[in-house]
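Cross-posted from the bioinformatics board.
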Amino acid sequence: MVSEAVIWSIFLLPLGSFVFAALVVRPFFNRFSIVSGFVTIAALGTALGFSIMTLRSVILGHHLEFEPFEWLVVGDATIEMGLLMDPLTALMLVVVTGVSLLVQIYSLGYMKGDPSFSRYYAYMSLFTAAMLGLVLSSNIIQLYMFWELVGVSSYLLIGFWHERPAAAAAAKKAFIITRIGDVGFLIAILYLFTQADTFAVAGLNAFNIPDIWQAAQPEAAAGAIIGGAALTWLALGIFVGAAGKSGQFPLHTWLPDAMEGPTPVSALIHAATMVAAGVFLVARFFPIFEQSVDAMTVVALVGAFTAVFAASMGLVMNDIKRVMAYSTVSQLGYMMAALGLGLYAPAIFHLVTHAAFKALLFLGAGSVNHATGTFDMRYMGGLRKHMPVTYVLVLIAGLALVGIIPLAGFWSKDEILLGAWNGDGIVDTWVSRVTFFSLIAGVVATAFYTIRMIILTFHGEFRGGIEKELEDKSKADPAAEASHGGIHLHESPFVMVLPMAVLGVAAVFIGYLANPQWVDEFGIPQHWITGFLADGLAESLGAVGHHETLEFSWSMAAVSTAAALSGIGLAAVLYLRRKGQGTDPLERIKPVHTMLSEKYYMDTLYENVIVRKGFYRVFAGTLDWIERNLVDGTVDLIGWFFRNIGTVIGKMQTGQVQTYATGIAFGTLAIILALLLAN
Amino acid sequence: MSFEAFLIVAAIMFCIGLYGALARRNVLAVLMSIELMFNGVNITLVAMAKYLAPAGLQNDISTVLTGQVFAVFIITVAAAEIALGLGIVFAMYRTNETVDLSEATQLRH
């Protein structure tokens, strides 16, 4: 049993290290900026310890319910702050603090010598604190607050190297696009505001998350307080917010651009944790989604489409981080699709395994960048010989991503595929089928781009790194920026390799949390993690009993492995044998390659059509016209009136004192006459 | 003599004065017209003191004197005003070499 203080301090420790780094170290002791790194790591280490204690306590079935405290009273609505502790929260705490801790250790090496070292750690601590607060929130307003804090720290970190125009633009793009999604979330919250009285009649608080769950249940004592179309719209509003944060189509365009931030940031925020916040949000409100077939259908189809859509763009990217970014979008699509199909526990399980291997992949990309100075895979190659540890770890992570038995991704992805095939959710059968085949297609694409990425980076001959890239660039653009650490082809320092190794171990073994084998190995019961999460969901709704878990299926494993192997084989045939730099084999199918490289022209659509034509020209143009003609016209008219009335009235000022006196006399007479007449 | 007769005479005097003050161009004539207006008012004050006093006090000397004191004050002030006005007229004549009021428009701008 852990106390409330321990759980609060999981959130408060990183917040404290943020305050320390931002308000003490950075302004006063910037020469010793390494201190902020150590403080952050110490805080996160403690937080990880507390998180593991909490998880253990939840696993042991302790009753962790805490009284929320009152934060604001607005009219009849009371807004509280509190802790919501269930298996989902406990698991997320460990994932967030664990990945964050490893990334902070890695950053000691990666960010070494950066002039803004303290600022970096301050932002990272702020992000971690906000993310932990988000996970712990028991109140939807509190959750929304941390949701936005997470968004702002993501903005700060993407634009960390704000002197680079691309980074500043990417930060802005990420902020604006996620904000578009948040409008949906905000509308959902505002709808709850309007229902506060109805909730109060039933003895519920409209902002308390467990109360919202209860209100959506048709078999609740008072009947469903929110239901029908209102419930669907509420769920869809929440989903729009989640889609913005998790980069679901059509709000995915910010995530690949977010790779302008430092690579550890990409690993922590744009791969492992923050982008998973959208999935977490849908999971958090899963009892609401479950009541609406329409909302679940939308979630499943958007997720499935994103999974295959993003994966297809990942096929042709040349920037190693962009390949991974599209891969992240695609994997988040898997999670969303799983949630839409009612596969609550597999989705969260995939979130956990994905956090491990995707963080590792990004850290590997950072390590490669450390050696070659570039992110462009066309200038890498042959790094296997120089960086054997990184190679092995990235290979493990890549195969885990592809879903090769016995690595982590296999178990979680298989659960999703199996669930999609069974189609036991509340959505129509065709939705399950469409989702299943999209996800299988996604598996092939995932295998292809992952192996392509590994071959281009680590196999073949070294193709010159940053120096060659700058040489090629300067031919086209002499003003190309020259900011790089130079080439030093050797393994990254220990402080960077260690966290990667830990994540590598996780990527291998974390899949066994589900342990869908034939015997109880390692003392973990079969289907442990999915059962754990599903039971948590059932208990939160007042039910007892075990949610059903999926049986391991040999045939499904065979299908998914065959799909993965076909992708791997294709990539190996195309890339392993080709000599020298040459052109990308995919460029032979020119129109498709161009379309994919141009990201289906989505960026062009947003930038040129929506922003420039729609927003600048139509919207801003209309406002400009109104400003110029109506507003300015009115002001000009008023000015003209008074200028001219001045000329007219000025004529009356003759300087003749007798004229004035006549006016006064007759004026007085008129007043007196008026008074007399009035009486 | 009725009260109305006094008021009619006073009104006629005031209006003649007003007409002169508004219509004459010569500053001295205007000053004289203003005197006429003052005296119209003085007649009214004296007549009112006599006729509008409360019943029983109409022969009381202090009541009647109230209006007459006003009239005396106005005559005094008018004398002072004329002295001042004549000074201005002199100054005006020195600068403009005329006492025509329609020429005195320097304050317009």
